[in-house]
Design a protein that fits this description.
- The chain is 42% helix and 19% strand.
- By secondary structure, the protein is α/β, with parallel strands linked by helices.
- The N and C termini lie far apart (69 Å).
- The chain has five helices and seven strands.
- The chain has helices spanning 2-32, 41-51, 68-76, 89-101, 132-143, and strands spanning 58-62, 81-86, 108-112, 125-128, 150-154, 165-168, 173-177.
- It has a single domain (41-182), classed as Vaccinia Virus protein VP39 (Rossmann fold, 3-Layer(aba) Sandwich).
- The longest helix has 31 residues, at 2-32.
- It binds S-adenosylmethionine.
- S-adenosylmethionine (SAM) is lined by residues 29, 32-34, 36-39, 61, 63-65, 68-69, 85-88, 91, 114-116, 129-130.
- S-adenosylmethionine binds next to helix 1, helix 3 and strand 2.
Length: 183
């Protein structure tokens, strides 16, 4: 009986620690950038079409969540490679599992990293779905990208910058910037 109680106690403790880990993984993004709100595949499609993503191009999703935009890029637009930077370990694990299940692990890479400090690889299209304060902080890093990079912000305009192209409503707000717009 005592052994049973001990095992039960250990299991309960492990469960509590697991819940604490998951909750803190999501809470941490409130301090480091933007909270997780996934993009529906239909909206990811609109976003990538707005960017004019071509087969063979590379996409970089800054704050890639569970990988929705990356999967759409390689599966529907035949992007060569989609790379995501994500800070939340739970979402990174989800994105990696989803990539395996969809058999696109060789084309979709999720990197554990902070978008404010990690070095970015070259990309033709950079996608973001981040709150305005995060975009403001990210602006110098986006401005330093190669001039031909197409940067798409979903939902939020970068304060004080005129986008190269925009779509405001009826159901989607999309902004396309070139690095030179952000200098
Ligand atoms: C609104 S969600 C967008 C997720 C995904 N791009 C999509 O559209 O489905 C923002 C994501 O950015 C991540 N994030 C926030 N701050 C970050 C940081 N400093 N570095 C890396 N990722 C970050 C969050 O964990 C979250 O998954």
């Amino acid at each position: 009986m005592q052994t049973f109680m001990l095992i039960l106690l250990i299991l309960l403790l492990a469960l509590q620690l697991g819940i604490l880990f998951v909750l803190s993984s999501f809470a941490i993004t409130l301090f480091f950038g933007s909270p997780w709100v996934p993009t529906h595949p239909m909206r990811a499609r609109k976003m990538l079409a707005f960017a004019g993503l071509q087969p063979g191009e590379t996409v970089l999703d800054l704050g890639s969540g569970d990988g929705a935009i990356m999967f759409c890029a390689v599966e529907e637009f035949r992007a060569f490679h989609a790379i995501g930077y994500e800070i939340n370990p739970v979402l990174i694990a989800m994105a990696k599992i989803r990539a395996r299940l969809r058999k696109v692990s060789d084309q979709v890479t999720t990197v554990k990293g902070n978008i404010f400090t990690n070095k970015f690889p070259h990309a033709d299209v950079v996608t973001t779905f981040l709150i305005p304060s995060t975009m403001k902080k990210l602006r110098p890093r986006l401005a330093a990208m190669p001039p031909e990079t197409r940067i798409i912000s979903r939902g939020f305009k970068i304060t004080g910058v005129t986008p190269t192209k925009q779509q405001e409503g009826p159901d989607e707000w999309l902004y396309l910037y070139k690095p030179d717009d952000l200098k």
